[in-house]
Design brief:
452 residues, mainly alpha, two-stranded antiparallel ribbon, 1% strand, globular, cell membrane, quinone, EC 7.1.1.-, transmembrane
Amino acid sequence: MPLAQEPDLSVFGDDPFWLVLLKVVFVFAFVMVTVVVCIVMERKVLGWMQLRIGPNRHGPWGMLQSLADAIKLMLKEDIVPRGADKVLFWLAPILAVIPAFMAFAVIPFGPKDDPVSIFGTQTVLQVTDLPVAILYVLATSAIAVYGTVLAGWSSGSTYPLLGGVRATAQIISYEVAMGLSFAAVFLYSGSMSTSAIVEAQEDRWFMILLPVSFLIYMVAMVGEAHRPPFDMPESEGDLVGGYLTEYSSIKFAFFMMSEYIHMVTVSGLMVTLFLGGWRAPAPLSFWEGANSGWWPMLWFTIKLVGVIFLFVWARASLPRVRYDQFMVLGWKVLIPFALVWLMLVATVRAMQNEDYAFSDILLWVFAGVVTLLLISFVVDYFRDRAEQRDEDGRAEEPEPEFDPMAGGYPVPPLPGQTLPPVPRRPSRAERMGAGVAAESEGSPERREGDDA
């Protein structure tokens, strides 16, 4: 299989200014309407899954619940903490919202080779495209981290600062795994352009061709979007409300909106990279006109809503994990798996470019997988033996007594340490019995008997 050529992006950049402005307004409206529908759909689906009614008061079937929530938040009092950095406190919600909108500028809604007519002008159903469009998406998502960091720091409060640190670590950790899952797509499509990646899925979606990358991205996008079961930065039990604790009114609405916009953005990326983008699913793909005209926008929207449904399904089904479990999953599971899978994909692509037979490729891949499994087995065997020797050595040594007040402040025990036994408080019966005994020992009759 020859290497892919540089994609032809000459169709972009020739639109008149009014058409570019119209496309930008359409993308903004599309994302906002999707967010509104997403919020209502989440509440209705959660109500259906949890056997309850859900919103049913505002509008027909409760469909205007999101509009009612927005009006309520705008009418609430806007409070700014006295110790906050006011400039950064106002800037943080804006930095959280704008990058999520910017990423949708390179998402294709239709083919670039089959333009549509808008007010008599032929144009492509995409704002623009770049030779490094996916890197542009990663860069804009990295800018959104500043909104989280500044929201926690500028509030001048401890709990938002803790929430901001946790959220930032979460985003950075899972962006690494997300980028590695993208790399396998780049190798197979031969391009970082979003339109070229969709065109490369003409015969087979990358979800089928690269299933490991698809699964890694599916987990990473949930973690990066702070969605359940990975919503630790906003867990009410231990952080009050996370990095947005001190926010209220419209600024709080901006943060809530940025979370849903981010969810729509990562869902659009999944559709583009792994689910064929605007291409019609089978059996509709056998229809000759399914991928022409305005139809591709419909297929893209249906796939987008389907991915958003997975977010809602995960929220209704899975409990929140602990933060240490979440970080272990990212650094010790997803990233190593993504690296090994990337090396495997690169090897297969290199052998395909060298015109190796398919049977030879399978043989080499099978031999490599078996070798990795054997090496892993040997490493685990010797590591377990070393850990067993260390445990036996620690068992022979007397365990030092743990003093929780050694440093002057109470500290919890580390793994392997035990707290000293707490003195048991005597029960009421024991205290009454001890009092009766003391009285009998001090009575005159008892003293005379002792003297005799």
